[in-house]
Amino acid sequence: TGRLRLVLGDHLSRDLSALSDLDPGRDVVLMVEVADEARHVRHHKQKIALILAAMRHFAQDLAAEGVTVDYVRLDDPDNTHSFGGELRRAVARHGPASIVVTEPGEWRVRQMMRDWPSDTGLEVEIREDDRFFCSRAEFQDLIAARKTGRMEFFYREMRRRTGILMQGDAPEGGTWNFDSQNRKRLPRGLTPPPRRRFTPDATTREVLDMVGARFGDHFGDLEPFGWAVTRPDALAALDHFIADCLPLFGDYQDAMKADADFLFHGLLSPYLNCGLLTAREVCARAETAFRDGAAPLNAAEGFIRQILGWREFVRGIYWAEMPDYARSNHLNATRDLPTFYWTGDTTMRCMAQCIATTRRHAYAHHIQRLMVTGNFALLAGIAPPQIEEWYLAVYADAFDWVELPNVHGMVMHADGGRLGSKPYAASGAYINRMSDYCTGCRFDPKAKLGPDACPFNYLYWTFLIENRGALSDNPRMALPYRNLDAMPEDRRRAIADHAARFLDAQAAWVDSDPPPRQ
Ligand code: FAD
Ligand code: DLZ
Ligand code: SF4
């Protein structure tokens, strides 16, 4: 008898470690569609459709290679709808000698796996996920040796180790970081390129119909559905990004524009995270574009930093710090998530815009996530688990290993600065500088007090007032605290008053269950 090889929905890479020594004559590949994975948080409809359609195509390709694939569909009447239940049923069907799986992307699923040997009576071999540049062990060593666990040092070390964008021992262009060139506002006359989207084939169509019927009450629009769900289409998406978007990616990396959902961003994270593209090939393509003169260095470096730097760093932190990481709440934030995160029903135009693009595409770009919906959650003091659940549910690229450090650490500062040295708190001036959202907003980004004052302004100062104990010793917060302290006491009181009234008005709309929204 052969081995049973379980392939999860974010393991869709042909060179996955769990498939490396596959014996097509004896082994069985198991793939299971289970409702528990769609419902543990109520994922966006497009996210469920993307994963299930990509799983079905991946299984078809393996079968076409002559591999025996046991594929359990969501509508199988005997489906137990959990990974553990489906594994037990498959063991009964095939009687394998042992089980092989690649380590999962989520702590939650890693915990499930502890029960599998006793549940099945078989050896469960959990292999390393080697699709990352930096292994978990390597990360631990790096952090231990460096003491300072900051992204920038990790990234430089990864550049040296991989040789990506290096000239011998020195960084290409003589500097590691071109961030200062990468903060331009989008000029009025510049229209971002139309984006390549993919028409669903019959397999994907069937999944879309099933998701519409079963998960119709989840957040988000199901259609139009334009994501790639096969490796060739994901590669076509990568080609399109490198040719049409990468050259200006750096310049407008931090820009936001009303009704422009994608700008020059990659739209590649769902493919990287579920396995259709590899981090290595994506970085290699960006580097080649630079070396061929097709993209400037600030673009290629800015893009590679996100993947070789941030993506690898947050994964390292996640596995080094879980499970305690998720439980910290450095700023003691406890407010309920306002209902408008699910409905988009708010007069703050920036928030309404970012929630609308999220609903339309299961996507928002980094600055929308960090400086709009994230910034609001930080300033309003939303309870970390509630805002984490929102991010995990609504984005097609969201898996715990990458979502949690970004939200818990980078946005909410709930980890006390393990990930970022200071909170990215900002007032309306930042959003006004980097976007055109404020034009046509009912609030005035320049007004600090009064009925038209931008809520981000009084929420910002109130956040500083309320978190003085946790933040005022941070040298990077010295300037904001000096500005706060220079304000007359009655102005500070008026600001805090505005914030309290505003937040109470939102609380009237809070509902512990997200309202159904089609
Ligand atoms: P691009 O702007 O084109 O960037 C290129 C690639 O870099 C992305 O595809 C992604 O793989 C990687 N990347 C960029 N920034 C980060 C980052 N901070 N952490 C990890 N990888 C990064 N990314 C996810 O993949 N899944 C998530 O669940 C997720 N949640 C986030 C939550 C918050 C609050 C914030 C601030 C960021 C989050 N990110 C997450 C990071 C980032 O916003 C997305 O990776 C990015 O918007 C994906 O779109 P893109 O492919 O167009 O990215
Ligand atoms: C996100 C997701 C969904 C919605 N459905 C499935 C599924 O039916 N089967 C599956 O194998 N994976 C699914 N996934 C992705 C898993 O949640 C993902 O593999 C784990 O979170 C990784 O630990
Ligand atoms: Fe957002 Fe304030 Fe600008 Fe309105 S004025 S769009 S609330 S930053």
Summarize the structure.
By secondary structure, the chain is mainly alpha-helical. The protein has helices at residues 35-39, 45-64, 83-94, 107-113, 116-120, 136-146, 151-162, 202-214, 231-249, 269-274, 279-291, 297-321, 324-327, 340-343, 349-361, 366-380, 384-394, 400-411, 428-434, 455-466, 468-471, 478-485, 489-507; strands at 3-6, 28-32, 68-72, 98-102, 124-127, 166-167, 170-171.
Structural features, described:
It comes from Paracoccus spongiarum. Pfam families: DPRP. This is Cryptochrome/photolyase family protein. InterPro entries: Crypto/Photolyase_FAD-like_sf, PhrB-like, Rossmann-like_a/b/a_fold, UV-DNA_repair_photolyase. α2 runs antiparallel to α8 and α9 crosses α11. The strands form two sheets. This protein has a five-stranded parallel beta sheet, sandwiched between helices. The chain folds into three domains: 125 residues, 3-Layer(aba) Sandwich (Rossmann fold), CATH 3.40.50.620; 174 residues, Serine Threonine Protein Phosphatase 5, Tetratricopeptide repeat, CATH 1.25.40; 168 residues, DNA Cyclobutane Dipyrimidine Photolyase, subunit A, domain 3. It has 518 residues and is mainly alpha-helical. It starts with a strand and ends in an 11-residue tail after the last helix. The C terminus is likely disordered. The protein is globular and about 80 Å long. The structure holds flavin-adenine dinucleotide (FAD), ligand DLZ and iron/sulfur cluster.
